[in-house]
Please model this.
Amino acid sequence: VCWSPELRLFVAVSTTGTGNRVMTSSDGITWTIRTSAADNQWLSVCWAPEINLFVAVSNTGTGNRVMTSPDGINWTARSAAGNDDTWWGITYGNGLFVAVSSSNGTIAATSSNGITWTQRTLPTSTQWYSVIYGNGKYIAVGLNNAATSLDGVTWTLQTIASGSWGALCFGGGLFISADISGTNSSAASSMDGIT
Model:
């Protein structure tokens, strides 16, 4: 789920459903079902205020693992970078969308407009689950790993405790990640994405 302050709208995406894998809400309480661009497993969505665009990524589908919308209601399928990788996380910051893949590899992708994507390389091979922009940098987390980047292109591996790190957010100068494996009750916090 993400929030657009400009539209005053929450948008949520889903991994299941038939033609209805998007919901919108102005208050987070009352939700309206919207038609998704495809019945893919949509895992993450973000908002780009500079270009007024929602972008969502999926880990299923053929040639359509990205979808975009200017209003959260009308969605258009887009092709992702690479060969239909399992896209799990997306963020927007500093004029750039950055997406990460859980394909047991080093795969990331960047786009300035949400439509044309360029494949990028993360610093180690793992399942990357989430990415966020905050405090002037991108942070990606995954299975036993974290990485930082100032531009979304060049990444540096960082040390993080063992875990399936996902559910990453930034606020109040702090990055927070939770273990999504269901076996640990672990969370991790960092002021800089490094320590």
